[in-house]
């Protein structure tokens, strides 16, 4: 059995991802309302309403409750002098190791909901791709950004 990365993202991420799920359920509910109007106007079969209700219940269960919980439990990271290790995924757990020497720059970003909960996402850019650590507390994100930036400079000077 492998050793998991030690650090977790903020627990507030769970609330944030549940809000994203609720927004998604809201969009689906509006589409279902359109279906209800269509069924009533053109006398379509009423079993379509049962399917729409089932889809909404399924989406509430998965998007608002189950997926955010699993996502938060799996998301871990660890920064060492040599590399950045990320672990995430729901059914398939992905582990990524980013060598510090490959880091080109580090950014933090906040959308309106992240700002409301005082969270930030860190983007770690390499030549090939961008790796993100979502929903860290603002202060922790800023300290981590500075730390990764310093470690990347040291790794670059050692080459």
TrEMBL record:
Transmembrane region(s): 20-41, 47-67
Name of protein: YdbS-like PH domain-containing protein
Source organism (scientific name): Halobacillus mangrovi
Sorted UniProt keywords: Membrane, Transmembrane, Transmembrane helix
Stretches assigned to the YdbS-like PH domain: 72-148
UniProt keyword annotation of Ribosomal protein present: no
